[in-house]
């Protein structure tokens, strides 16, 4: 059974956060952009945000949207933003540095902070997690009717949801022991001023817990959030979304649907179509069967265009195919 993107939006009129996941190069940015364009046309003030370190949106839209929310040419309510990855990561590093140094000082631990900071920031998950933080900030600012993220924070969403109970427990425990320590400090102290001393770590932990809980609520609310998965008719991209969808089902993250990209149109076949292309069409037919059998919610097929997708006009063509 095939549904459509329009049906999805009719079914979820309050939808606010859309994410696009899938293997690299399958067309996430293109499909996200086409969807955002359609949503903006429906009158929603829409932000299309990319957390991708390569300048994909600027290239696709042929417009500089790097580091600032920019109105997309030829539209009146679509804004695009390419998050400055380097800046985000630097800022995150700084914040962690401050917290660690502060904590070591507060707890009177006579160690240099550098080693801790290195362990906290030199791991591969750190960058992704900094980007996720940034995405959370954009969401919590709440300036738009609708948000489209061109790369689903798959690993992070999964980690956040898988860990959120543990995080909350951990933060609660930290809070409790800090409060106890504080009370003790005040009791034991000769100086009166200790009482007024603020505890930034305590504040941070409380805020951190609040953010996790709010993000978890948003990510699992099917009225508000949906993850779409883009695939080509090839084995590897299909395997990737199969795995993602499996994870997401386990965590109760709402799945909007599967979008098939770069389908070679049969109407293009003629008597002199090359063997090479006929073979690819046969291959696509096989994988298409597999996709429809495996996923109950295929909600769009986009043809392979005669050239790469660049410029708003070309994105409009994609949009018309996705929202026929
Ligand atoms: N339907 C299509 N027809 C032709 N080219 C496409 C199509 N979809 C995507 N492309 C091209 O494929 C490349 C990868 O697309 P992109 O959206 O950047 O992928 P991702 O964001 O998943 O890495 C781009 O050069 C894009 O122009
Ligand atoms: Mg991309």
What does this structure look like?
The chain is an alpha/beta fold. The protein has a domain at 5-85 and 127-165 and 218-322: P-loop containing nucleotide triphosphate hydrolases (Rossmann fold, 3-Layer(aba) Sandwich), CATH 3.40.50.300. Helix content is 55%, strand content 13%. The protein has an 8-stranded mixed sheet, with helices on both faces. A hairpin with a 6-residue loop joins strand 3 (70-71) and strand 4. Helix 4 (85-106) runs antiparallel to helix 5, helix 4 crosses helix 6 and helix 7 packs parallel to helix 9. The radius of gyration is 24 Å and the shape is elongated. The mean pLDDT is 87. It binds adenosine-5'-diphosphate and magnesium ion. Residues 22, 24-30, 56, 261-262, 302, 304-305, 308-309 line the site of adenosine-5'-diphosphate.
Keyphrases for this structure?
Rossmann fold; 11 helices; binds adenosine-5'-diphosphate; binds magnesium ion; alpha/beta; elongated; 324 residues
What is the radius of gyration? Answer: 24 Å
Largest sheet data: 8 strands, mixed
Strand order of the largest sheet: 3-4-2-5-1-6-7-8
Order of helices and strands: HEHEHEEHHHEHHEHEHEH
Ligands (ions, cofactors included): adenosine-5'-diphosphate, magnesium ion
Shape: elongated
| Beta-strand fraction estimate | 5-15%
Tell me, rounded to a whole number, the average pLDDT. Answer: 87
CATH structural fold name of the domain at 5-85 and 127-165 and 218-322:
Rossmann fold
- Tally of separate helices: 11
- CATH-scheme architecture of the domain at 5-85 and 127-165 and 218-322: 3-Layer(aba) Sandwich
By DSSP, the count of extended strands is 8
Q: Poorly predicted ranges (pLDDT <50, ≥5 residues)?
A: none
CATH homolog superfamily of the domain at 5-85 and 127-165 and 218-322 = P-loop containing nucleotide triphosphate hydrolases
Tell me the distance between the termini: 17 Å
User: Helical residue percent?
Assistant: 40-55%
* Structural class assignment: alpha/beta
Q: Would you state the CATH class of the domain at 5-85 and 127-165 and 218-322?
A: Alpha Beta
